[in-house]
TrEMBL record, chain A:
This is Branched-chain amino acid ABC transporter permease. The keyword Transmembrane applies. It is a multi-pass membrane protein. It comes from Teichococcus coralli. The chain crosses the membrane at residues 6-26, 33-52, 58-81, 88-109, 129-153, 185-207, 219-246, 267-286.
TrEMBL record, chain B:
This is Branched-chain amino acid ABC transporter permease. InterPro entries: ABC_transp_permease, BCAA_transport_permease. Belongs to the binding-protein-dependent transport system permease family. LivHM subfamily. The chain crosses the membrane at residues 6-26, 57-80, 92-114, 134-159, 188-206, 212-232, 239-258, 264-288. Coiled coil: none annotated. It comes from the Bacteria. One of its GO terms (molecular function) is transmembrane transporter activity.
């Protein structure tokens, strides 16, 4: 039971980092990306490759994963600067679909459909941190760091300018904000954090393949952020807990056959997304429009 | 010869895409609602047809059921999802997420009802025959092309000649002025959703008999219509249809040069390139950033 709970907590923490990083894009910057699993995947593959070829050091792997995801996030920043709204959603969808194909075909880097097997146990500065409770603590520390960074940045001038751009791009530009630089920075930062989450995921699972980085995963993360509440620090975490506990809770219900759990879970979160948008568009933890 | 064969099957796929994308563009053009649940209408229509033929009903009953379900779903989305959202806020983002949620709901309901696997309806029309040595073509090819052209001409005539069609075009230009002339924007938007959703039916039925259906087709069709609408220029019916045809042909033709796994990605490379270099699409007006 303890092992089961530790497992759930570790996954929740990793997804918490992922959702918080997506919230930076969707919530604060108004960049509505449905390609977040791509950067999660890039981080995971980069971290896994580094661990398998050089050293399984978590710090180095996180650096590598963050760098790769951050650098390639320029593919997402480019359309974000050119277009908005519907067009950008379409562009990020296109990017997601292309990336899945690349992930399953680029055997040298990703191992193709079979994925990368046998990722070594994680260590940190020479200490073994692979025991489940230790790894959970490490993940929690990373999550705390990510949240602190987001909070500090969003309280400061960077965050305020970003939110100004989200609310009215032309007004922010008229006030002399460098829209292109701010947006690019937000995208790179958010995607690099997703890359770090990917590295933790790769070490934790000791195996990665393309199945974890598909459009469905991107949508799941998006649902977490939206159901929890965008542009709040706590919202994405609420969403993560709800959506991860849902399948765990459903498996205790005797009248749902185990093979159908996936569909029932999807049904519930699809419905939750639609209903929330009608009745509470700011999400569960978000402030409703009247209080703002 | 391979090239020609691929071109022909590309045109067949493209005809289906074109009709579906035209429906999407019609809805977006008139109501400015980005109806991402359009793919769900497609899946519902396809599975309705499938269920009817499994029950042994004749094909036209299946088509009628598909039509009713698709149109009903489109109207219900308009009345129960989009209109309540637009009453209080109506930002693009909110509408998109709600529609996306409903697509997931439809997809999982289909999974629960029909399972996750591929299902195909058998039809004598899909038997491929050699028209010249080495070149195979099924009768369904002509059906697809004929339907696509005929329906497209009909819809264009409707939009240009009839009073309701002109009303639809006016709705996209200026809803307030429309109300001042005593026309109901609610009724017109319902018309747009009904007509747009009806346009998925031929594509859904043809797909059910040719390449087969699976629950994830809702998301695939949504992606294709979205891509076609953007490549064609958002809101332009002509552009969406042409882009749908183009995407179908590109998807099939790339098989001549690269592995088949890359074929579905090829369409999205086209989409991505268009967004970067020509965001207004083939026929769209310049986009206000």
């Amino acid at each position: 039971m303890i092992a089961y709970l530790t497992n759930l907590a570790t996954l929740a923490t990793i997804f918490g980092i992922l959702a918080a990083s997506l919230n930076l894009l969707i919530g604060y910057a108004g960049i509505f990306s449905i390609a977040h699993a791509v950067f999660f995947g890039l981080g995971a593959y980069a971290g896994a490759q580094l661990a398998m070829l050089l050293v399984p050091d978590l710090l180095l792997a996180c650096l590598a994963g963050g760098l790769v995801a951050g650098a390639l996030s320029l593919c997402l920043a480019l359309p974000a600067l050119r277009v908005r709204g519907e067009y950008f959603v379409a562009a990020s969808l296109g990017l997601q679909m292309m990336a899945v194909t690349v992930f399953s075909e680029a055997h040298a880097f990703t191992g193709g459909h079979g994925g990368l097997v046998g990722i070594p146990l994680a260590s940190l500065l020479g200490f073994d941190i692979s025991a489940p409770p230790t790894f959970l603590v490490v993940c929690l520390v990373v999550l705390a760091l990510v949240l602190v960074v987001i909070r500090v940045l969003m309280r400061g001038s960077f965050g305020r300018s970003l939110m100004a751009i989200r609310d009215s791009e032309s007004a922010a530009e008229a006030f002399g904000k460098n829209v292109a630089r701010l947006k690019t920075l937000a995208v790179v930062l958010g995607c690099a954090m997703a890359g770090v989450a990917g590295v933790l995921f790769a070490f934790y699972m000791a195996f990665v393949n393309v199945e974890s980085f598909t459009l469905e995963q991107s949508i799941l993360v998006m649902a977490m952020v939206i159901i929890g509440g965008t542009a709040t620090l706590i919202g994405p975490l609420v969403g993560v807990l709800l959506l991860l506990l849902l399948p765990a809770g459903l498996s205790f219900l005797p009248f749902i056959p185990p093979t159908e759990i996936g569909s029932v879970q999807q049904l519930i979160y699809g419905l939750a997304m639609a209903l929330l948008m009608i009745f509470r568009p700011a999400g569960l933890a978000g402030r409703s429009a009247g209080q703002r | 010869m391979l090239f020609l064969q691929l071109l022909l099957s590309g045109i067949q796929t493209g005809a289906i895409y074109a009709l579906t994308a035209a429906g999407f563009a019609l809805i977006f053009g008139a109501t400015r609602i980005f109806h991402v649940a359009h793919g769900a209408s497609f899946a519902l229509a396809g599975y309705a047809f499938l269920a009817c033929s499994q029950m042994g009903l004749p094909w036209f009953v299946g088509c009628l059921a598909a039509l009713l379900l698709a149109v009903g779903f489109g109207l219900a989305m308009d009345a129960f999802i989009y209109r309540p959202i637009q009453r209080h806020e109506g930002s693009f983002f909110t509408v998109f997420v709600a529609a996306f949620g409903m697509t997931i709901v439809v997809q999982s309901l289909i999974e629960l009802g029909f399972g996750r696997g591929f299902v195909v309806v058998d039809s004598p029309l899909t038997m491929a025959r050699a028209i010249v040595p080495g070149l195979y073509l099924a009768d369904i090819f002509w059906v697809a092309i004929g339907l696509a052209v005929a329906l497209f001409v009909l819809v264009t005539l409707f939009l240009e000649r009839t009073r309701a069609g002109i009303g639809l075009r006016a709705l996209s230009e200026n809803p307030e002025l429309l109300r001042a002339y005593g026309l109901s924007s609610r009724r017109l938007s319902a018309l747009a959703f009904g007509l747009g959703s009806a346009l998925v039916v031929p594509g859904a039925v043809l797909t059910a008999t040719t390449s087969g259906l699976q629950p994830a087709i809702a998301a695939q069709v949504m992606l294709i219509s979205l891509a076609a609408a953007v490549v064609g220029g958002i809101g332009s019916l002509r552009g969406a249809a042409l882009a749908g045809l183009l995407l179908g042909v590109v998807e099939n033709l790339v098989i001549a040069f690269v592995d088949t796994q890359w074929s579905s990605a090829a369409g999205f490379v086209v989409l991505f390139a268009f967004i970067l270099f020509r965001p207004s699409g083939l026929f769209g007006q310049a986009v206000a950033r």
